[in-house]
Amino acid sequence: MDELKHCHTTHYSILAWRILMDRGAWQAMVHRVAECPIYIEPQNLRNVSEFFLMGLSDDPELQPFLFGLFLSMYLVTVLGNLLIILAVSSDPHLHTPMYFFLSNLSLADIGFISTTVPKMIVNIQSHSRVISYAGCLTQMSIFILFGGMDCMLLSVMAYDRFVAICHPLHYQVIMNPCTCSKLISVSFFVSLLNSQVQNLIVLQLTCFKDVKISNFFCDPSQLLNFTCSDMLKNNIVMYFVGAIFGFIPFSGTFFSYCKILSSILRVHSSGGKYKAFSTCGSHLAVVCLFYGTGLGVCLSSAISQSPRKDAVASVVYTVVTPMLNPFIYSLRNQDIKRAMWRFLRKII
C-alpha cells in the first residue's frame, strides 16, 4: 500500500510541474497514471444484496427429477412427523414425558427440514438460485436453531430413559410436568443462543471473495470461507462455539446410555433385559442415525475436495434423517403404531 502511494505521489508531483510548462503533458500524465497499479478496496459483506445457491447439480435434465424427489421427501417428512404429533396429542395413554419429548422432536424435525428444502424446491421450479443477504442469514440462524433443538432433545430423551430404567420408582416424581417443561425451555434457549452466536460471527465478516454457495442452503461454514479477513480466528471461534454446544448434549446422551447399559447388564433374566432395552431401542436408533450421519458428513467434507459432493452428503442429515425418524418410532413402538391407527380411523 505504501508503494502504491509513493508511486502515485511521485508521478503526480513531476507531471504537475510539467503541466505548467507544457500543455501536451496531459497525455504523459494519463500514460504515467496507467502504469501505477490500482488498489481495489475489498467489497464489504454488508453491501452484498444476494447470494447464489448452486444446488446439487447444474444439469437441466436432472432438475425435474430433483424437484420430484425432494418434494416427495419433504411431504413424507412433514406428514409423518405431524402424524406423530397428532397421534400423541389425541391419545391420553401417550400423555407421558417420553411421548411429550417425542412430539417436540417431531416438531423440531418439521422446522429443520422446512428451513432448507422449500427454498430449494422453489429455486428449481423458478430456475433461480438467488437468495437475499437477509434471507441467507435468516435461513442459517433458523437452521442452526432447529438443528440444535434436535441435538438437545435427543439428550433430554436419553435422560428420560435413564430415569425410567435406572430409577423407576422415582420416575413420576423426577419427570413431573414442570420439569419436562423446563427441559424443553432450556433446550430451546440453548439452541437459540447457539444460533445467534454463530450468526453474530458471520455478521463480523468485513469482506468476501465469492457469493456462490456450493450447497442448496446457506451453510455457515461456507460463508466463513468467503471472508478476506483472518479466517483462522473466525474458524477457531466458530468451531469452539460448535464444540461447546455440540459436546454438552452429546456427553449427556453418552453418559445416560452408559448408565442404562450398566443397569441392563445387572438384570439377570433375558426377558427383563429385552424389556428394558426395548423402551429405549427406537431412541437409540435415532441417536445413532443423527450423530452417525453428522459425523459422516464431517469426515467426507474433510476428505473430499469437491464442494458439490459435500452438498450431496449434507442431504443425508438435513433431509434423510428427519424423514426416517417417524418410521423408526412407528415401526419399533407398538404404542405409537396403535395410536396412529386409532387417529387415522377417527379422521377417515
TrEMBL record:
- List the Gene Ontology MF annotations in alphabetical order: G protein-coupled receptor activity; olfactory receptor activity
Residue stretches spanning the membrane: 65-86, 98-118, 130-149, 236-262, 283-305, 311-331
Membrane topology per record: Multi-pass membrane protein
- Location of the protein in the cell: Cell membrane; Membrane
SUPFAM superfamilies in the record, alphabetically?
Family A G protein-coupled receptor-like
Give the main localization category. Answer: membrane
Task: Specify whether Protease is a keyword of the entry.
Answer: no
Matches recorded under Gene3D superfamilies: Rhodopsin 7-helix transmembrane proteins
Q: Tell me which UniProt keywords the record has, alphabetically.
A: Cell membrane, G-protein coupled receptor, Membrane, Olfaction, Receptor, Sensory transduction, Transducer, Transmembrane, Transmembrane helix
Q: PROSITE patterns, alphabetically?
A: G_PROTEIN_RECEP_F1_1 (PS00237), G_PROTEIN_RECEP_F1_2 (PS50262)
Q: Name one GO cellular component term.
A: plasma membrane
Any idea where the G-protein coupled receptors family 1 profile domain is? 80-329
Keyword hit for Transmembrane helix: yes
Q: Which PANTHER family match?
A: OLFACTORY RECEPTOR
What protein family does this chain belong to?
Belongs to the G-protein coupled receptor 1 family.
Sum up the protein's function in the record's words: Putative odorant or sperm cell receptor.
Protein name from the UniProt record: Olfactory receptor
Q: What is the lineage of its organism?
A: Eukaryota, Metazoa, Chordata, Craniata, Vertebrata
